[in-house]
Amino acid sequence: MSAHVSNESTHRTPKVKKSGAKAHLVTFIVSIVLTALAFIAVGYEVIPIGFTVPFIILLAIVQAAFQLFVWMHLDQKGHEFPRIGILMGVVVVAATVFTFVYWLW
Amino acid sequence: MSGHAHSHKRSGLWDWLTTVDHKKIGILYLIAGGFFFLIGGLEALLIRLQLIVPEADFVGAATFNELITMHGTTMIFLAVMPVIFALMNAIVPLQIGARDVAFPFVNALGFWLFFFGGVLLNTSWFLGGAPDAGWTSYTTLALKQYSGIGVDFYVLGLQIAGLGTLIGGINFLVTVINMRAPGMTFMRLPMFTWSAFVTSGLILFAFPAITVGLVLLMFERLFGANFFNPDAGGNVVIWEHIFWIFGHPEVYILILPAFGVISEVVSTFSKKRLFGYSSMVFATVMIGFLGFMVWAHHMFTTGLGPIANTLFGIATMLIAVPTGIKIFNWLFTMWGGQIRFTTANLFAVGFIPTFTIGGMTGVMLALPAADYQYHDSYFVVAHFHYVIVGGLVFGLFSGLYYWWPKMFGKMLNEKLGKWNFWTFFIGFHLTFFPQHFLGLMGMPRRVFTYLKNQDLDLGNFISSIGAIGMTIGTILFLANVVVAARSKKQAPADPWDARTLEWAIPSPAPEYNFAQTPLVRGLDALWVEKMAGNKGMTPAEPLGSIHMPSPSFLPFLMSIGLFIAGYGFIFEHHVFSVIGILIAFACMLMRSLKDDHGYHIEPDEIEEKGVKA
Amino acid sequence: MKSRWQQLWRQLFLFGMLALFLAGCGRENLSALTPQGPVAEMQFSLMKLSALIMIGVFVVVILIFTYVLIRYRKRPGQDGIPKQVEGNHKLEILWTVIPFLLLIVMAVPTVTIAFDLSKEYTNKDALVVKVTAHQFWWEFEYPDLGISTAQDLYIPTGKKIQFDLTSADVMHAFWIPALGGKMDTNPGDSNKMWLQAEKPGIYYGKCAELCGASHALMDFKVNALEPAKFDEWATAMKSAESTPATASAQQGQQIFQKSCLGCHAIGAEGGKLAPNLTNFADRQRVAGILENNPENLDKWLADPQAVKPGNLMPNLNLKPEDRKALVDYMSTLKVYQP
Amino acid sequence: MSADHTVNSVLPDEPEKATLEGKNKVLGFWLFLGGETILFGTLFATFIALRNQTNGGPTGHELFELPLTAAATVILLVSSMTSVMSVLAMHQHNLKKMQVWLTITAILGIAFLALEIYEFSHYVAEGHKMSSSAFGSAFYTLVGFHGGHVLFGVLWLITLQLQAIKKGLTVVTAPKFYVFSLYWHFVDLVWVFIFTVVYLMSIVGGKVG
Ligand code: HEA
Ligand code: HEA
Ligand code: CUA
Ligand SMILES: [Cu+2]
User: Fold this and answer.
1) Which of B590, B595, B601 to mutate to test the interface with D (most CBs of D within 10 A)?
2) Which residue of A42, C58, C94, C123 has the lowest C-beta tally within 10 Å?
3) For the CA atoms of B587, B589, B592, B596, what is the dihedral angle to 10 degrees?
4) Which residue CA neighbors atom 32 of ligand 2 most closely?
């Protein structure tokens, strides 16, 4: 079947990095911290209420990026199309949400 | 492996129900899509018959609304999409030098889901009334308070068919990305494959939106949810947005493959390479991307406000630029060529001015203030039939005449073909050209009749007469199919002196497509070899045993399961809903647990058939 | 080959003629091509501008197209291989930039007109009309004047009318082609739009959004009156009082009060589920579609569903003599004759 | 050729990408997740649009409680981590370890579901139902769709465990485990936005007034 493999995608993925486990653990800690920050921001009103919503949304986006790129390996080579796929999805969702917030009527 | 079961010499009904061969699935799509096209066409004829004179009393008001809804829904989802899938299935793997698609099983599943979804929808005629809220099913009219059980058929039928389309789209994306023959880089992909690729991408990103829309509507109609009902805080405009977030990309899902066909046909029959190939690729991708940013141009009169309207309007107008690039590239492909007017090329050539007219009225519609006048009038009906019938359907006819020999091994008759073209072409313009003026003169769309003395009589009369021309054209095509099927003459491998890979193998394509995977050495792979004086493609691998996926009955069974569940939901007999869903899950489980080892075709069998490398 | 081109030309000619023929006409009080007020005028100017540009582009396309098809068709005996051209950057840039510029030409007036049309007139210059669409009839209220009517909309000429559009059931769209484009009436929200008529006259209005079986029959009329006459009408409406003269008409009034007033109002009295009939006898049409005469009214009362399928007026199984009485009574519901 | 599928003595480093079928599966699944992004995005947009339409019923601010949401969040986050560990174990060709991590993932998934069922029944008792308001409809559909994904994931995981026992780690089964972990991460990722947009924003929103 190897004959079908196109020349662009015939690359040998490197040996599993030793640091793999570490990066994943770091991401886990980052996720926990970001989540905790969001809950604290809401629960204890540590930042001005007016900023809370943009702040927690930003936290969510950062966390999502971490998980996508580290846990789901979007950063690795050979993930060009998955990256395009997710990016396009995000763009369409952004347009949708924006419209639903501002232009529903 | 337990040897190679010689099971590839199958035939008969069982074979068709279990096949996972992309070429056979292509034929299934063509038959089913063609059948639904006749039904949708019949509905169109009834519509035109009712409108031939003012205050006619041929079908009632309620029936008329069912007819337009089913006409639009059937044509878009069950007729032209499947025929597009037919061509994509039949041709894309061949054009990229692949033995099959990435997921043959999923491919079959996609077909059967579409098919049973379509059947479910159409049985509504006999089971309590067809949907009658328009193909757009705008809430509130589509809510339970205002319309009958038909809309439930719409919701579930489209949900099931839509799932089939979605997985089909993913399948083609992966196929094009991963299954290309050596040397077939992205910038060497034939234009039809490029357009199939982008169309599949649009399917992937557009269909989930309609899936959600249909789920919301289903919950609202069947389980008492309140997304749209303003009395409980719902919002009627949400449906409009969701429908068009899907609906606008959908129209480019339809037209891009037609663009692809035209590119292939025009280039082949001008005996020239496609002018501006890379800008064509760029334009296709651009259209696909912009297609997601313009949906609200269907909602200018909803009351979104001037900022939204002008932003969406201007974004819409921008699509004229990449589309124009295509039109001019086609013209300049023909420039300096040796144009042969085969039927396939007649349809392609007829496409160019006709689609241009449709695209231009599209740009006129994109100016919000002007659209306040055009919207929901016959001007819009004229616009979209110009792009859909004069664009897409012409493109599909062109593609069918072009690839028929590759799909069936027989040539369609050219003489009949020319009659087919001219009757359809003239009938088309007679039907839809006057509708522009009807709309401007104040005729709203979706009206089952119109009163006398409004100066609308003549236009409607001509329009209805024109539909006869398209009917004759369609019947001539059917006749042509019969004549071709009966003819004994086998089509040659490369009847048109064409340029791309699919013409390097016999007609019809053998089960394994390529005895040896070809090595691609440039754009228009076959043409490159022809110019180099070679007889055929250079193989990229030695002749060896070919692995094939096994046929499976599970896709059919699984679709039956959802079909049953659909009825369970519609008639609120949830025992059936549960049974149906369990059947589907059981099939999934079986598929997951049991590995498919496939079977092999050995070199001696290949050579037996005389297909030497 | 020849005959095919002849055929094509014949066809183009035919369409040209057809276009001229059809474009010329259209009823003045219905067609969007014969604008009767500033809004329709602005929209028409935009339509003309864009159509002109489109025709220009189309001519270019068709010229190249015809030239190519005639010049480069394969001639008998011709062989050899044409030059395989990869593309031409100059040309490609040309047909990217020119359309882009044309779009800008259209975009500028598009933006200004869209904003002009969306201005809200809540000042004294404008007359506010609240429009409520129903399956399948129209209700018009004049909050400033304290009157309301149905089916026939009365407006003064030369004055901005500020519409406040909503719906009582499903979505409809309010469209008076000769005066200007349409706007949806959404249940649960209201949309704003303004129109203006220059000349007195009767304009045709339509429902433009599929709203059920009788969507096609949801017509209405706009009666544009000179401002002075409009004021007279408004005053008359406020003090409307019908005086059934004949015995039959009085009998009709009694029937009406018994079986119709629950849904229909006359003056301030009665239900709001159905068209206000205060000035019914002044209407152009019965139920928006039948010419308003005694036979048609009788036809309507005998079987509303036969006239307008799916409408919400039940068949009250009235005896012919009761219908006669009602018709007599209702023909007295006159308020104003200009 | 695919006949070598059964050869699992020499498993490559990343067995999920060793065959064309495996590559196809991973890529196809990624694209599917692109589609799922739109699916959930549309549901989010609908929820955002309707979240204040309570039709007289209880508001999100009145209903939602931080501790419950936090518990659910931690459970799902940890389960996402454990599914990462299962893939790492797979890359080390350690079948046993992988199975253990997968089992923990499944248990956490079930715990999450139990919490959600408790939560929903609690709300229904307070009059917050699918049919009570647009807010209710949007809430149950969005959160329920996510819950449905968790449920499906758990069921799927069970069939995978069966295969792990029966077939072990091969180039045929490896892509399945890998793809499952992608799915599970995605479900967790959606939850990140659910707790932010649905729960936290409602709780804040109530305070602002
Ligand atoms: C195959 C299907 C298809 C295609 C390709 C298109 C293409 C386009 N459509 Fe169309 N459209 C539909 C199918 C399609 N449409 C359908 C089905 C509906 C109605 C749905 C319903 O309500 O039921 C609809 C409705 C519709 C509307 C809403 C109308 C209304 O309801 O009020 C609008 C408004 O902007 C619009 C615009 C456009 C535009 C700008 C394009 C552009 O893509 C066209 C671009 C092409 C050209 C412009 C021609 C070639 C270009 C040149 C030669 C270059 C030079 C040109 C210029 C400078 C202008 N369409
Ligand atoms: C792919 C899409 C597609 C196609 C191909 C067509 C094709 C045609 N359409 Fe279509 N049409 C739509 C999509 C399409 N339409 C949509 C989306 C709507 C909007 C619906 C809505 O408002 O909700 C619409 C609405 C629409 C209307 C407006 C209805 C209204 O607003 O009131 C009209 C009216 O003329 C019309 C006419 C036609 C005609 C004459 C054809 C012809 O081209 C058809 C030609 C084909 C034939 C004539 C078939 C030949 C038949 C036979 C050979 C006999 C069959 C025999 C057996 C079954 C045994 N269509
Ligand atoms: Cu009201 Cu159409
Ligand atoms: Cu569109």
Assistant:
1) B595
2) C123
3) -40
4) B446
Residue C77: Cβ-neighbour burial (10 angstroms; 0-12, 13-18, 19+): exposed
Q: What is the DSSP string of B586-603?
A: HHHHHHHHS----EEE-H
Nearest CA in chain A to B96: A4
Estimate to the nearest angstrom the gap between the alpha carbon of D163 and the chain centroid: 21
Tell me which chain A residues have a C-beta less than 8 angstroms from the C-beta of D80.
31, 67, 71
Q: Strand C147-150's sheet: what is its strand order?
A: C147-150, C137-142, C126-134, C160-167, C191-195
B163's tokens: 């799932």
- For the beta carbon of residue A44, count every other beta carbon within 10 angstroms: 8
- Rounded to the nearest 5 degrees, what angle is found at the Cα of B235, between the Cα atoms of B231 and B238? 155
If DSSP codes are grouped into helix, strand and coil, which group holds residue C163? strand
Q: Which residue has the tokens 């070429």?
A: B23
Q: Indicate the CATH number for domain C247-330.
A: 2.60.40.420
Q: What class does CATH assign to D36-47+65-208?
A: mainly alpha
CB count within 10 Å of CB A45 equals 12
How many C-beta atoms lie closer than 10 Å to residue B438's C-beta? Answer: 28
Domains (ranges, CATH) in chain B? 12-552+596-605 (1.20.210.10)
pTM of the model: 0.94
Q: Could you tell me the residue ranges of all domains in chain A?
A: 20-72, 77-105
Determine the 3-state secondary structure of C237 from DSSP. Answer: helix
Taking CA–CA distances from B330, the nearest residue in chain C reads C65
Label residue D192 left, alpha or beta by phi (over 0 means left) and psi (-120 to 50 means alpha).
alpha
Q: What is the DSSP secondary-structure string of chain D?
A: -GGGGG--SS--SSGGGSSHHHHHHHHHHHHHHHHHHHHHHHHHHHHHHHTT--TTS--HHHH--HHHHHHHHHHHHHHHHHHHHHHHHHHTT-HHHHHHHHHHHHHHHHHHHHHHHHHHHHHHHTT--TTT-HHHHHHHHHHHHHHHHHHHHHHHHHHHHHHHHHH-S-TTTHHHHHHHHHHHHHHHHHHHHIIIIIIIHHHHHHHH-
Please name the residue whose Cα sits nearest to atom 44 of ligand 2: B41
Q: Where in chain C is the domain with CATH 2.60.40.420?
A: 27-69+89-238, 247-330
What's the maximum distance between 2 C-alpha atoms anywhere in chain C?
98
In whole angstroms, what is the distance from residue B109 CA to residue B164 CA?
7
Q: Which CATH class is domain C27-69+89-238?
A: mainly beta
Amino acid code (one letter) for D35: G
Q: What is the pLDDT of residues B512-558, one digit of tens each?
A: 999 999 999 999 999 999 999 988 898 988 888 898 999 999 999 99
Q: Is C15 helix (H, G, I), strand (E, B) or coil?
A: helix
Q: How far apart are CA B300 and CA B319, in angstroms?
A: 18
Q: How many whole angstroms from its chain centre is CA B171?
A: 15
pLDDT in tens, D35-72: 999 999 999 999 999 998 888 888 888 889 889 999 99
Bridge partners (DSSP) of residue C167 are C133
Pull the structure tokens for residue B443: 């005729």
Determine the pLDDT at residue D152.
Answer: 96
Measured CA to CA, the distance from residue B273 to residue C5 in angstroms comes to 26
Closest CA to B144 of B227, B207, B242: B227
Residue A8: how many other CB atoms lie within 10 Å: 14
Which amino acid, residue D116? E
Q: Give whole-number Cα distances, A97 to A83, D39, D47, in Å.
A: 21, 12, 10
Q: How many CB atoms lie within 10 A of CB D166?
A: 9
Q: Which residues pair with C193 in a beta bridge?
A: C163
Which of B121, B381, B465 best tests ligand 2's pocket when mutated (most atoms within 8 Å of CB)? B381
- Structure confidence by residue, pLDDT tens digits, C22-65: 555 577 888 888 899 999 999 999 999 999 999 999 999 999 99
Q: How far apart are CA B397 and CA B84, in angstroms?
A: 11
